[in-house]
Amino acid sequence: MSAAHPVPVSPQRMAVLSTEAVDVLYRLGVADRIAGVSGFTVYPPEARHDKPKVSGFKTARLARIQSVQPDLVIGYSKVQRALLDECEAAGLPTLWFNHRHIEGIHAMVDTLGQCVGRTEQAHTLNQQLRAHVAQVQQAAARLPWRPRVYFEEWHTPLTCGIQWVSELITLAGGIDVMAERARRDPFSARAVTPDEVLAAQPQLVLGAWCGQRFDTAQVLARPGWAALNATVLEMPSSDLLAPGPVALERGLAQMLAAICRVVGTTPEALGYQGPLDWRAPAAAH
């Protein structure tokens, strides 16, 4: 977390440029204090329809942000750092997050709760998220075996999943074959070669290309990959690549479902009773 100008106590008109922060603020009951959101906001769906769009994810016009008269601008990642620097230069208070792991998600919830005067609600939300994680872990502990998993976040060059995605794989009972690489920063440090993936012998290949549909046919057409003894599945990027509550709910549940598919069981057979409203599509291989 970083802020060049003092963050106002209980801000009333927030411009929120990251979808996970929008989701948290809605859950904390302060949706009425959100003056504008990013065009990439996904959750909750009503935010995308009801709130003015003041930015993309990477770009924005300062005048557009200023037009909603924010008393706080909230953003995420190094990609948005330049946007927040521009806001700060114009005298707008900012709050910047750059967490890369699951504990950072919980810390973000706590920080936003403190910021808007909803500390008890934030604590309750974190308790609910931790309870769901524990439920998935209990189910995963009943898996008969743990598959080796490669998660692909981008294709040119091949880039493995970020740290919180790697942690979700582990929580859901998989073995991330790129676990060490997932902890590297910046994004370019997570690049992998096709040969490295083949050598890791994954049994499950999951893909969520940020901003694009994962092309399973393209993946299997890579030299040598047709012989890969792995199930290849597309995963929903909006549920996995935004480090917020949805990743710990829908994202983690979907990860468990994908791993169960390879192992030959179901989440329900393992005792999972969470809000699983997604099933893995037909396997490409």
From TrEMBL:
Signal peptide residues on this chain, from the entry's feature table: none
Residue stretches spanning the membrane: none
UniProt domain Fe/B12 periplasmic-binding: residue ranges: 13-263
Protein name (database record): Cobalamin-binding protein
